[in-house]
């Protein structure tokens, strides 16, 4: 996937309205650098003058050891796939003395569907907003993140839904049917993404690029949109809910 460096810069400038990252923050590099989430983990602290804690592989595999590292290193910004965070919730419950030492300000979920109902145990021990929890949907072809959804205990009480919120300001998100027509709120469709974050395409694979990066019939002349292969629906409040893969 060919992504210009400028796409990463605009990812942080266009999301700055939601975050207050700065030189006092400590981040972790938890995920493999072969995973696109690591772009956010690496460049977040480097672009804001913060500190990056590289998590040893054996520590990443142990929720208890990782919890201890977060507390000892005074990590303030944590990026996690939901499947990595759920065991951390359990470790936090089993080791409350370590959990009480956490300095987290922000936890950002990405990389896979989030079951918000499973966050209730975390909020039972940590007040909402301390740290704040955010879900960000995205894919490699759109430069890591596409949407932003703040989370709270009321959201968790709504059940196992996966809210993904609203688009980053320089992106356009469509929920379309098989004829590329917008579906009404509440109806399921396929998610398409257009705007400044799109990759140039797949290196050396023009055929695949042509099937995934389509002309955007709703945008400016010459603009493109990416077919994600993910299902979603618009909620009554104008935010998006992720519903899984279209080919599942």
From TrEMBL:
Keywords: Phosphopantetheine, Phosphoprotein. One of its GO terms (cellular component) is cytosol. The keyword Phosphoprotein applies. This is Non-ribosomal peptide synthetase. GO terms for biological process: amino acid activation for nonribosomal peptide biosynthetic process; secondary metabolite biosynthetic process. It comes from Streptomyces fimbriatus. The lineage of its organism: Bacteria, Bacillati, Actinomycetota, Actinomycetes, Kitasatosporales. Residues 1-203 form the AMP-dependent synthetase/ligase domain. It holds the Pfam family AMP-binding. One of its GO terms (molecular function) is phosphopantetheine binding.
């Amino acid at each position: 996937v060919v992504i210009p460096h400028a796409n990463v810069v605009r990812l942080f400038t266009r999301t700055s309205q939601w975050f207050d990252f700065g030189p006092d923050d400590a981040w972790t590099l938890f995920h493999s650098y072969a995973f696109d989430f690591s772009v956010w983990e690496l460049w977040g602290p480097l672009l804001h003058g913060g500190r990056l804690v590289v998590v040893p592989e054996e520590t990443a595999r142990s929720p208890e050891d990782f919890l201890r590292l977060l507390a000892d290193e005074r990590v303030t910004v944590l990026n996690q796939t939901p499947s990595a965070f759920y065991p951390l919730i359990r470790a936090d419950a089993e080791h409350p003395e370590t959990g009480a030492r956490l300095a987290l300000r922000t936890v950002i979920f990405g990389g896979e569907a989030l079951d918000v109902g499973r966050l209730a145990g975390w909020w039972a021990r940590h007040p909402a907003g301390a740290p704040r929890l955010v879900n960000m949907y995205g894919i490699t072809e759109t430069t890591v993140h596409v949407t932003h959804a703040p989370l709270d205990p009321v959201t968790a009480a709504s059940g196992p839904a996966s809210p993904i919120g609203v688009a980053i300001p320089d992106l356009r998100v469509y929920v379309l049917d098989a004829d590329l027509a917008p579906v009404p709120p509440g109806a399921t469709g396929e998610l398409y993404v257009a705007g400044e974050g799109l990759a140039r395409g797949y290196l050396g694979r023009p055929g695949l690029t042509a099937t995934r990066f389509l002309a955007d019939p709703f945008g400016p002349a010459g603009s493109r949109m990416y077919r994600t292969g993910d299902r979603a629906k618009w909620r009554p409040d104008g935010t998006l809910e992720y519903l899984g893969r279209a080919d599942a």
